Amino acid sequence: MNENTQSDYFQSPINPVCKSCQVVPALPDSPSQLCATCRQEFVKYPVPKWVQASGAVLVLLLIIGIVRVAPMLQLALDLSRAQKAIAAHKYITAQNELKNIVAQRPDFIEAKYLFFIAACYNQERDLAQGFFKEFDGVRLDLDDDIQSKAQDAAIFVNSIIMFDTSVDDSIDAAALVSSGRLLRLFEVVDTSHFTADGGDTLGRRERLNSLFCIAHKMFDLKFYDETRDMAKRILRYDPGHYNTIGLLATLNTRLKRYDEAIANCNQQLAINCEDIYFLAMKARLEVKKRDGKNAALHADEAYRLAPKNPYALEAKAVLAWFNTKPPEAERFLGLLKAVEDDSEKVIYQRAARVINGSDFDD
User: Fold this and answer.
1) How does pLDDT run across 118-177, given as a tens digit for each residue?
2) Which residue, among 336, 265, 350, 283, has the nearest Cα to 307 in the 3D structure?
3) Across all residues in the chain, what is the average pLDDT?
4) What's the number of CA atoms in the CB half-sphere (13 Å) around residue 93?
5) How far is CA 101 from CA 58, 94, 144, 306, in A?
6) By three-state DSSP, how is residue 37 classified?
7) Closest Cα partner for 28 from 17, 42, 40?
8) Which of 112, 117, 195, 295 has the fewest CB atoms lying closer than 10 Å?
9) Distance separating the N- and C-terminal Cα atoms of the chain
C-alpha cells in the first residue's frame, strides 16, 4: 500500500495549499485547509486576553442573572400553586404557598387578595381583617373573578358566629322559663326580620346568628326534633351557614345517624376541602362506623395540614385508641392538652373519655 508523505502532497495538484503558510499543501483531513505544521501551531496559540476577559464577564453576568431570576421564578411557581389550590378549594395549602410571596413582595396586590381569600376560608379573622383594611376604599385594577371570590370569602367568614354574650343571656333567660318560650322567640326573630325571598331588614347576618343561637340552645336542652326543624329553616335562608351545618352534623352524630352526619361534613368540605374541624369530625364518625381505613385517611389529612390543631390531634388520638395503640393515643392526648386554648379543655376532655373507655356522643 502506498503511503502519502508531505512531499507527495506538495507535488500533488489536487491538494490545496495551506491557507496559513501558502507553501505546504493542506492535510486532506483538515476542514480548515492547514498543513500539519501550521495546524499544530494554531493549537498551541494562546487565547487573547481580551477574549478571556470577555468570556469571564459573560459568565459573571450569567451568574448574576441566575441569582436574580431564581427567586422570581420561585415566586411565580408559588403563585401558580396557590392559584391551583384556591381553584380546588384547598385553602390551607393556598395560604402556605402565599406566605412567602406577600412577605417578599408587599406590593403584589393579586397575591394579597388571594391570601385574603384563603385566610377567610381558614377562619383566620385577624389576618383577613388586616388585609381588608388595606383594600377598603382603594380602587384596584384586578380581575373581576378575584374580586368576586374575595367578596364571597368575606361573606363566609362574617357568617361564622362569634357568640354574643348579650344574645346568649336573652336566650338563656327564655330557656329558663320553658322550651316553648324559646320556640316563640325563634318565631319572632324569624317572621319579623326575614322576607319570604330570604332578604333582610335589620341585618341578615345578625338575625341568622340569633336564630342559630336559639337552635343551639334547643340542642343543649335535648329537644332534638325542634333543633332539626330550626336548623332546616336557617338553611333555607343561607344553605351554607357554617355553624348550622356543624350543628346538624353534631345532632345527627348524637342520634347515631352517621351517614347523615358525614353528608353534613361533606357539604362544608365542598366549600373548603381542608376544613380541619369537618375533616376531624369525619374521622371520628368513621371510627364510630368501625371503618378504620377511611378514619385514618381523614385523620392523617387533618394532622398533615395542621399538626397543632386540637381537632386534628383529637382525631389522631381517637384513631390510635380504635387501632388499640394505647401509647400513641396517650401521646396525642398529651399534645392535645398542651395546645388547646380553652381553659375547660373541652376537646381534650371529650377525647379522654373515649380513650378511657367511654363512648363519645359528638
Assistant:
1) 999 999 888 887 777 776 655 666 677 888 888 888 888 887 866 554 455 566 665 555
2) 336
3) 81
4) 17
5) 31, 11, 21, 21
6) helix
7) 17
8) 195
9) 100
